[in-house]
C-alpha cells in the first residue's frame, strides 16, 4: 500500500482534523480504504456560505452527518455550524440536533448566525439553545430572546457571546444570560432592543477580555457599568449611553463614539479617568467626530468638559485629520482632558503618496503650532514643544508637555 | 538518572539501523518517550529507538536542537517549524510523522500533520491520488456511487482530467 494510506489511524485523524469539512469528506473517494476514514475525525464544521448546493441539501447534509456520527457511535468533540439563510424550519432542526450533540458528548459547539440581511424576520430562539451545555461560542442575529427562557441556562462553557439586533422581551433576561456564563471572554452587544442596563461585574465575569457595545438606532438609551479589571478591549459606539467604570490593569484598546460635543468630551474624560492607571492608546474615528458638533472657534472650557478631573496621560492619540472644519477647537477639547505623548494622524481618503502625506502632515503640524499660540490658555501654558517624527511611510507628532499635574500610570511616568 | 553536575547531560540514541547519535538531554526530552525513559532511570547507556531509522533520527535531532534553542516565543518557534519542514518531500514527512508519533512529540506531530493537510487542501481526488501514489481500487460504478453520496464536495476544487 502507499505511504499515506498506510499511516496509523490516529495520524490520519490528526491530518483530517485540520481539513475543512469539504476536503475531509472528499477523501472518501480516494480508494476503498479511505471510504470511511473521514468520519473518524472528531470535528464537524458546516457553513452554508461555502456549501455547494441549495439550502435544503445543506440542512440534510448536516442532519445526515450528525445522524451518522450518532448511529455509528463515532467520537465527536467539536461541532461548528454557521448559517446565513435562517428560517423557521432550520431553527426547528436545532430542537433535534442539540440533544443529539449532548448525547454524543460534544465539548465544543459553536453556533453562528452572522448574516446581516436586515429584512429577515425576527425568529424566536428555541429554548433548546439555552440548554446546550457544550456551547462555546454563540453568535445570534435578529432573534427574539426570552419569550420562554428556561429557569436554568446552561452556558457553562460559553466563551464568546455576540448578540446583534436581538429583542429582549423581558427585563432581566439579559442579566439571567450573563449570570450563567462564568467563562465568558468576549461579549459583543449590537442594537439590542429592550436592553436598558448592562452590568459587568468582576465576580461574575472573571475572564472577560473584550467588550463591544453598539447602539446607534435604539433611542431609549442604555446605561453601562463596568467593573472588570481583566478587560483588554472596550468599544462603545453610539448614542445615549451612560457609562461608569472602575480601574483596569490590562486595557489596551478603547474606542468611543458619541454625539454632542460637551457630553462627548465629558464621557471621554470620565472614561479616561477610570482608566488612568492603564497604558492608554486612544483612537478617534471619523464617524465620531462627524457627530460631534464643535462650533468653530468655540473654546471648550476645561472644567466643564473634564468634570473636574485632571487631564490623563495617553501614550498615543490617533485621529482622522483633514476633514474637520473646527479642528483646532476639537483638538483643544482633547488636550483639556488628555495629554498624549504622540499624535498619529490617519488619512480618511488614503492611500496617498508619501509626498502628499508629508504635505498634509505639515499643514496638520502648523495647525497645532498655530493653536498653541492662539488656543486656550491651558494649551498655551502646558504644551511645551512638538516635533514631527517620520518613519518609513508613517508619520507622527511627538508632543512634550510641561505640566506634571496630570493623571498618569506609573509605567509611563518612568519612561 | 544523570548525576546533578554542572555540565549538561548528553544522551546517546541508537536508530534501528544501528547509527548512534549524541544529543543534549534538555533537547531530547522534547520526546515524551525519551523523557519517560530518563525519568525511569533507563537512560544510563544507549537508548535504542527501534522504530526510527538513522536518516529520520538525524532529522528529528536537528529539529530537537533547533526548537529547544528558541526561548519561549510561540511565533519564532512556529516560523522555525515552517522553515524546517518547507523543503521536505512527502516520503520524508511520512517518516517524520511516524517517528514523532513513536517518540511522542506532539509539537512535531502537529506541524507535520498540518503540512500534509495543507498539501491536500482544495485539491481534486485525482491530484491527491497522484501526489501520494494512492491506487484507486474502486470500480467505476462504486466510485460514482461514493461521489454521488458526497456530491457537494466536488465543486470548486482545483480541476484536473481524471477528477
From TrEMBL, chain A:
Residues 1-37 form the F-box domain. This is F-box domain-containing protein. It holds the Pfam family F-box. It comes from Erythranthe guttata. InterPro entries: F-box-like_dom_sf, F-box_AtFBL13-like, F-box_dom, LRR_dom_sf, LRR_FXL15/At3g58940/PEG3-like. SUPFAM superfamilies: F-box domain, RNI-like.
Automatic annotation (TrEMBL), chain B:
GO terms for biological process: jasmonic acid mediated signaling pathway; protein ubiquitination; SCF-dependent proteasomal ubiquitin-dependent protein catabolic process. Keywords: Ubl conjugation pathway. GO terms for molecular function: cullin family protein binding. The keyword Isomerase does not apply. Residues 11-65 form the SKP1 component POZ domain. Pfam families: Skp1, Skp1_POZ. Residues 108-152 form the SKP1 component dimerisation domain. Pathway: Protein modification; protein ubiquitination. GO terms for cellular component: cytoplasm; nucleus. InterPro entries: SKP1, SKP1-like, SKP1-like_dim_sf, SKP1/BTB/POZ_sf, Skp1_comp_dimer, Skp1_comp_POZ. Involved in ubiquitination and subsequent proteasomal degradation of target proteins. Together with CUL1, RBX1 and a F-box protein, it forms a SCF E3 ubiquitin ligase complex. The functional specificity of this complex depends on the type of F-box protein. In the SCF complex, it serves as an adapter that links the F-box protein to CUL1. PANTHER family: SKP1 (PTHR11165). Part of a SCF (SKP1-cullin-F-box) protein ligase complex. Belongs to the SKP1 family. This is SKP1-like protein. It comes from Erythranthe guttata.
Amino acid at each position: 500500500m502507499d505511504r499515506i494510506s498506510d499511516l496509523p489511524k490516529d495520524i490520519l485523524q490528526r491530518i483530517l482534523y485540520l481539513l475543512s469539512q469539504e476536503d475531509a469528506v472528499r477523501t472518501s473517494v480516494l480508494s476503498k480504504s479511505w471510504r470511511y476514514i473521514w468520519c473518524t475525525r472528531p470535528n464537524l464544521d458546516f457553513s452554508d456560505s461555502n456549501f455547494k448546493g441549495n439550502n435544503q441539501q445543506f440542512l440534510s447534509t448536516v442532519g445526515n452527518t450528525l445522524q451518522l456520527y450518532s448511529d455509528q457511535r463515532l467520537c465527536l468533540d467539536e461541532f461548528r455550524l454557521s448559517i446565513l439563510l435562517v428560517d423557521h424550519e432550520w431553527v426547528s432542526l436545532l430542537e433535534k440536533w442539540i440533544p443529539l450533540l449532548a448525547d454524543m458528548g460534544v465539548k465544543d459547539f459553536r453556533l453562528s448566525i452572522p448574516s446581516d440581511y436586515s429584512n429577515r424576520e425576527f425568529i424566536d430562539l428555541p429554548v433548546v439553545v439555552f440548554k446546550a451545555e457544550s456551547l462555546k461560542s454563540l453568535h445570534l442575529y435578529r432573534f427574539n430572546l426570552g419569550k420562554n427562557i428556561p429557569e436554568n441556562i446552561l452556558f457553562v462553557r460559553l466563551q464568546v457571546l455576540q448578540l446583534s439586533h436581538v429583542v429582549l422581551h423581558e427585563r432581566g433576561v439579559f442579566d439571567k444570560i450573563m449570570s450563567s456564563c462564568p467563562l465568558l471572554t468576549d461579549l459583543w452587544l449590537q442594537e439590542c432592543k429592550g436592553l436598558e442596563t448592562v452590568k459587568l461585574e468582576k465576580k461574575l465575569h472573571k475572564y472577560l477580555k473584550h467588550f463591544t457595545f453598539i447602539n446607534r438606532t435604539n433611542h431609549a438609551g442604555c446605561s453601562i457599568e463596568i467593573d472588570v479589571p481583566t478587560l483588554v478591549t472596550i468599544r462603545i459606539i453610539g448614542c445615549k449611553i451612560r457609562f461608569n467604570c472602575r480601574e483596569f490593569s490590562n486595557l489596551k484598546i478603547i474606542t468611543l463614539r458619541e454625539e454632542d460635543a460637551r457630553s462627548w468630551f465629558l464621557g471621554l474624560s470620565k472614561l479616561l479617568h477610570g482608566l488612568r492607571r492603564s497604558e492608554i492608546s486612544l483612537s478617534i474615528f471619523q464617524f465620531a467626530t462627524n457627530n460631534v458638533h464643535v462650533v468653530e472657534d468655540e473654546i471648550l472650557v476645561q472644567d466643564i468638559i473634564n468634570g473636574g478631573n485632571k487631564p490623563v496621560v495617553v501614550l498615543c492619540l490617533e485621529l482622522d485629520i483633514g476633514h474637520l472644519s473646527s479642528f483646532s477647537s476639537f483638538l483643544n477639547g482633547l488636550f483639556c482632558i488628555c495629554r498624549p505623548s504622540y499624535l498619529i494622524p490617519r488619512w480618511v481618503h488614503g492611500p496617498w503618496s508619501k509626498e502628499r502625506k508629508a504635505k498634509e502632515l505639515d499643514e496638520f503640524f502648523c495647525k497645532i503650532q498655530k493653536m498653541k499660540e492662539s488656543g486656550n490658555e491651558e494649551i498655551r501654558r502646558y504644551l511645551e514643544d512638538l516635533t514631527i517624527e517620520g518613519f518609513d511611510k508613517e508619520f507622527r507628532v511627538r508632543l512634550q508637555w510641561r505640566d506634571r499635574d496630570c493623571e498618569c500610570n506609573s509605567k509611563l511616568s518612568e519612561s | 538518572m544523570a548525576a546533578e553536575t554542572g555540565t549538561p547531560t548528553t544522551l546517546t540514541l541508537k536508530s534501528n539501523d544501528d547509527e548512534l547519535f549524541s544529543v543534549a538531554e534538555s533537547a531530547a526530552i522534547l520526546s515524551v518517550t525519551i523523557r519517560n525513559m530518563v525519568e525511569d532511570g533507563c537512560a544510563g547507556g544507549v537508548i535504542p529507538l527501534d522504530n526510527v531509522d538513522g536518516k529520520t533520527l538525524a532529522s528529528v535531532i536537528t529539529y530537537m536542537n533547533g526548537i529547544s534553542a528558541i526561548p519561549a516565543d510561540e511565533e519564532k518557534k512556529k516560523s522555525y517549524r515552517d522553515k524546517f519542514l518547507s523543503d521536505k518531500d512527502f516520503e520524508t514527512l511520512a517518516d517524520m510523522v511516524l517517528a514523532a508519533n513513536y517518540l511522542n512529540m506532539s509539537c512535531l506531530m502537529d506541524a507535520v500533520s498540518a503540512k500534509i493537510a495543507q498539501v491536500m487542501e482544495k485539491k481534486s481526488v485525482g491530484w491527491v491520488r497522484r501526489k501520494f501514489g494512492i491506487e484507486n481500487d474502486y470500480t467505476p460504478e462504486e466510485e460514482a456511487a461514493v461521489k454521488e453520496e458526497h456530491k457537494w464536495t466536488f465543486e470548486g476544487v482545483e480541476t484536473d482530467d481524471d477528477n
